[in-house]
Design a protein that fits this description.
The chain has 298 residues and is α+β, with helices and mostly antiparallel strands. Helix content is 41%, strand content 24%. The protein contains eleven helices and ten strands. The strands form two sheets. A five-stranded antiparallel beta sheet has the order 2-1-5-4-3. Strand 4 and strand 5 form a beta hairpin. The chain is elongated. The chain starts with a helix and ends with a strand.
Amino acid sequence: MEPENLYLAIIDNLFDGVYFVDTERRITFWNKAAEDITGYKASEINGKFCQNNLLNHMDSDGRNLCNLGCPLFATIIDGKQRREKVLLQHKDGHRIIVSVNIFPYREDGKIAGAIEIFRPSTSTQQHNANNRIMEISIDKMRNYIAGAGEAESYITYKLYELKRTQRIFCLLLLNIDNFVKFNESYGYETGTQILNRVYRSICLNIRPTDFFGFWSENEFIGVFEIKKNYEATLLAEKIRILVAGTEMPYESGDLSVTASFGVTVAREDDTMGTLIQRAHDLMCQSKQRRKNCVTSDA
């Protein structure tokens, strides 16, 4: 076997996504793991420019990186290796947090492009589990959670654990902004699809020990273990950016939604009722303020 073919075979069978861009940021190589992680086949990507926003990279503050602040482009300019965490948009529209390692490629001592190696930040086990979750329709999942009472059961357990071991956690409620108007404009089916994509984006980016599910028609609930109170606000902001960055194609252009958040840190004297009511009141404050924001008592 020729060395070049051997190297390509190895790269094509890595678990990490790998792609190469030339100095014009044209993608010329896209391995199989990149296909699996992003949903885009090599035939759909090769020859395209990364600044065309197919992957629509965002940073943790929700800023688009493909047109402003692209780390790949920066590496082509200055030749420095970079390690970042960015939000990549899957072909289906949901967001995935990926860790990227970018380094320059040189020919005859000159930079000829850049190589990016990337992987989902979540564990392989969780990634596979969430892929299975994604196969379940949103209506079935909503009915399942409501019928089984998983959210209530999990909160009850976490409150018991808090009293026994002092392991703190936060509870988050989010309400999709202007969802009735969204359904009126685009139809119930489209509304269901955007909720499904939001749910996927979040499930793919939380720990296996956290809980996230439906609470009502256009509300989600999340329970997250934290070590410091301030982490509750940071976590809610991360999810807010994931929601706003989740898109789905539509005949008039890509659609997206925002959400209003309430997040509170559980107290030892809380009941499930007081904890949920406090998160709900904080969420209502976000609605009254300006929507697409987080209100926290942490």
